[in-house]
Design a protein that fits this description.
Helices cover 35% and strands 24% of the residues. With 451 residues, the chain is of the alpha+beta class.
C-alpha cells in the first residue's frame, strides 16, 4: 500500500489523481497546487446573469483514443447531462477563416473546396496533396513544421495555413516548432508510409486502445467535432476535485508551493513553505521550469532538460457586444504572422456555444488571442504591459477585421503567463503526450496495472 504525492493541481495532476483513486494499491494521495484554485488553464468566468466566458480552452475534441478516454472520464464523473456538443455539420465546424491581406477568407472544405482555387491560395489544394505522394521521404530525425510542410505540400501552404494553425494551437512559430513532437501523425505518416496521404489513408502506426463508453459512442454516432459543458470547461476539473474529495483517500492542498524535493530512506520528502510532506512516490504535473527548480542537484541532467523547454505567454481578451455584430458565421479566424505578429486570432464564441450567452437579450461573445511567441516583441515584458493596452489592441482588431464599430459592453483581460510549452526541434528526445491520457499512463506505469 502506498502514499503518492501529485505535484500540480491542473488538469494533468487532477487526472493522475483520479486514476490513482481507482487503484486499491494506493492508500493516500496528496495533491499540491501552488495557486488558490484547481484546474490550471481550464478556467471559466460564470457571470451572475448566466453568461459564461472561457480564459483557456473553450472546446475539447472527442476524436481518437485520447478523445474517447476523456469522454469516458466525463461519463464517470456524471457530467454527460451537461455536455454541449458541436457536430461536424454545425456552421462553426464548417466555417473557419483566415485573415490575409486585410480580408477574411473561408478555409476550403469538402471536395469542391479542394478542387477549386480558393483565395488566399494560388492553386487548388488537391494539387498540392496529389503532388505530395511523389516527394521523397526525409532522412532527418526531426525538422520544423514549416520546413516539413514546405517540402511536402509547398511553401504557400506552410506560410499561410500552417503558420496560422500553429499560432492558433500552440501560440507558436512553425519555423521553430518540431513536426515530430507537435504533429507526430504527420511525421509518422512520412516515415512509415512515405507520404502524408498514404499515412492518413492506411494508418501510420499503433495507437492506444481505449474502449468507447456510452458518451464516446454517442459522440461517434452524432458526429461531434468538439464539446464543452453548460457551465463552462472549468466544470470538468471541478467535478474531478469533488470526486477526489469524496474518495476520502485524497488530501487537496491549495497555495502549497513545492520548494524542494529530496529523496529519503523510505521514499521522498517534499518541502513546502510551511512544512514537509512524505510520500513513497511522486507524480509531477508541474510546468517544466517549476519542477526543475524543485529537483535535487543530483538530478542535473533532468534539470537541464526541463530548463530547455520554452514556454509562451498569451493574452486572452474576452469581449461581449450587445446585439448580433458578426458579418459572417463560423468558429473564428486565425491570423498568419506575416499579417500581424501580435494578433493570433479571434474566436466567435457565440457561434459554437450560444448556450453560454446570457439568456436575456441578444449578445455576441468573442475572444481575442494575442502574443504567444511574439509577446515580448509586440507588447514588451508580460508583467509590465497594462490591461488597457491589450484591451485597446483587441477591440481595434475586432473593428479592423470584422467591421464592428461599437464598443464592447463587457470585457475581461487575462494574461496567461507561460501557459503553452513550445516543443522545438529535438524535443522528441524528451517526452510529450496528451495531458489527461499522460496522467493515466503515469499511474499505470507506477502501479504496473491498467486503470
Amino acid at each position: 500500500m502506498r502514499t503518492i504525492a501529485v505535484l500540480g493541481g491542473g488538469i494533468g495532476g487532477l487526472a493522475a489523481s483520479y486514476y490513482l483513486c481507482k487503484s486499491p494499491q494506493v492508500t493516500k494521495i496528496t495533491v499540491l497546487e501552488s495557486s488558490s484554485r484547481f484546474g490550471g488553464w481550464l478556467w471559466s468566468t460564470r457571470r451572475s446573469d448566466g453568461a459564461v466566458f472561457e480564459h483557456g480552452p473553450r472546446g475539447i475534441r472527442p476524436a481518437g483514443a485520447l478523445g474517447r478516454n476523456t469522454l469516458n472520464m466525463v461519463d464517470d464523473l456524471g457530467l454527460a447531462g451537461e455536455i454541449l456538443p458541436v457536430t461536424y455539420s454545425h456552421i462553426a465546424s464548417q466555417n473557419r477563416y483566415l485573415y490575409v491581406n486585410g480580408q477574411l477568407h473561408r478555409m476550403p472544405s469538402g471536395i469542391s473546396g479542394l478542387l477549386r482555387t480558393v483565395p488566399p491560395f494560388s492553386r487548388p489544394l488537391l494539387l498540392s496533396v496529389a503532388m505530395e505522394i511523389m516527394v521523397k521521404k526525409s532522412k532527418q530525425d526531426d525538422e520544423s513544421i514549416h520546413s516539413f510542410v514546405s517540402r511536402r505540400l509547398g511553401k504557400e501552404l506552410a506560410d499561410i495555413a500552417v503558420d496560422s494553425l500553429c499560432r492558433g494551437v500552440f501560440a507558436g512559430d512553425c519555423r521553430k516548432l518540431s513536426v515530430r513532437s507537435c504533429f507526430p501523425l504527420l511525421y509518422n505518416s512520412e516515415q512509415r508510409r512515405g507520404s502524408l496521404t498514404l499515412g492518413l489513408l492506411l494508418g501510420s502506426g499503433p495507437t492506444p486502445v481505449v474502449p468507447s463508453g456510452p458518451l464516446a459512442q454517442r459522440s461517434i454516432k452524432e458526429s461531434w467535432a468538439q464539446w464543452s459543458l453548460s457551465r463552462g470547461i472549468e466544470s470538468f476539473p471541478e467535478s474531478i476535485t469533488d470526486y477526489l474529495q469524496q474518495s476520502r483517500r485524497v488530501q487537496l492542498h491549495r497555495e502549497a508551493v513545492v520548494k524542494q524535493i529530496c529523496p529519503s530512506a523510505s521514499g521522498w520528502k517534499i518541502h513546502l513553505e510551511d512544512g514537509v510532506i512524505s510520500a513513497d512516490h511522486i507524480i509531477s504535473a508541474l510546468p517544466a521550469k517549476a519542477l526543475s527548480s524543485a529537483l535535487p542537484s543530483s538530478c542535473q541532467p533532468l534539470i537541464q532538460a526541463l530548463q530547455d523547454i520554452s514556454t509562451v505567454t498569451v493574452a486572452v481578451v474576452n469581449l461581449e457586444y450587445e446585439g448580433s455584430i458578426l458579418p459572417l458565421m463560423g468558429f473564428g479566424h486565425l491570423v498568419p504572422s506575416s499579417e500581424d505578429r501580435g494578433l493570433l486570432g479571434v474566436v466567435y464564441d457565440s457561434v459554437p456555444f450560444p448556450q453560454h450567452n446570457r439568456p436575456n437579450g441578444q449578445t455576441t461573445r468573442l475572444t481575442v488571442m494575442m502574443g504567444g511567441a511574439w509577446f515580448q516583441e509586440e507588447f514588451g515584458a508580460p508583467e509590465a504591459v497594462t490591461e488597457e493596452r491589450l484591451l485597446a489592441r483587441a477591440t481595434e482588431a475586432v473593428h479592423c477585421h470584422l467591421g464592428v464599430t461599437r464598443a464592447p459592453s463587457w470585457s475581461r483581460v487575462a494574461i496567461q503567463m507561460d501557459c503553452i510549452p513550445q516543443y522545438y526541434q529535438g524535443h522528441f528526445l524528451r517526452v510529450v503526450n496528451d495531458v489527461i491520457f499522460s496522467g493515466r499512463t503515469a499511474v499505470e506505469e507506477l502501479l504496473g496495472t491498467g486503470v
